[in-house]
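Researcher: Please predict.
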Amino acid sequence: MIKFSIFTIGCRTNIAESEKLRALLISKNFVYTEDIKEANYIFINTCTVTHKADRDSKKIFNRVRRINKEAQIFITGCATDLFKEEKNVKILKFGELLANLDHLGEEPKILPPDKSGHSRYFLKIQEGCDYQCSFCIVPFKRGKAKSVDLTSLIKETEIAISKGYREIVLTGTQIGDYGKDLDKKINLGFLIEELLKIDQNFRIRLSSLHPSHVNEIFELLTEKRIPPHLHIPLQSASEKILKDMKRPYTLKFFDRILEKILKINRKFSIGTDLIVGFPTEGEKEFRETLDYAEKAPFSYIHIFSYSKRIGTEAAKLESLDPKIISERMKIIKELDHKKRLNFLNSLLHKVAEPVYEQKEDDFLKGLCEYGFSVKFKGNNIKKGEIVKTYIYGTENTYLLGYKI
């Protein structure tokens, strides 16, 4: 009996890849274990988007090596360069890893929600990015945008639904670029329309969507099977910093996108990313970002301190004082907390529809259509099921409810 473990750091694309690997290995009679000591093979799917991701990747590797000196370790993902000098490890791109295990033409291997680590299915539709933002290392690691074949995605979605998944999350490095390397008529909107033709009870969630791509799917945002939740990275609300970051849009363009979404006759949750402490960010530019974020209709903000990535254009610039970055991070985090609470309170005494994920204390727990976690009461619910839930309260950053 050959046992294996998988560790995943980073984005939903990595999660999708790791789940596909786990299902494939199990289909070949390998046995999954969370006990590192038992594993014959250990796979580490790494991330290098920030310094923290590098540290996490190294930390897991060192822990694995310390606990199990006999296992064969495989390194994949975006931070493989960190492990080039390590002995007795195999470094492979994810595609190479699958090719060594799989046979072309076979149906995708998919674990049902009760056997998977996730109740929502992460469907990787593309990888790679053709943008050249001055701070981002990802295009150097993932390469040019490359889309997954449309027919394969439809088949994979059908199988995932048959296994019990009721939420399909479209993932990729830059999902709005889907189809640009395929037939001219195929884009993200076309893919979603084709998936919605599947005659089953399920919904399609979009992962992070570049501001430049929102218009491509805008007409679909009234579709009830697409959750009213968009995550649109802004990164900075200073026109100067956006230009220095080489983001291919202006603040005015971003503003128009938000205005269009707010005019839709649905309540939307809009999240964003902000990078704090970009090398050219002075106090004026930071205040511009803070002022904009306070007024903007964001329901939450994912906050990142600028992380110098060797090989990027911004890495040539002098970094800001860490104390300044820390102070600014604290201010934005306080704003994020306020935004989250305001949005949670706006859902009180309304109905939300979380996907049941796991038990937590005396509650069931799941992610609702607005992108927030719900603790709720209910019986006879299967993992992966979408549950109509009455929201009666909040607890920290959770919604509280019960099945109706």
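Model: The radius of gyration is 21 Å.
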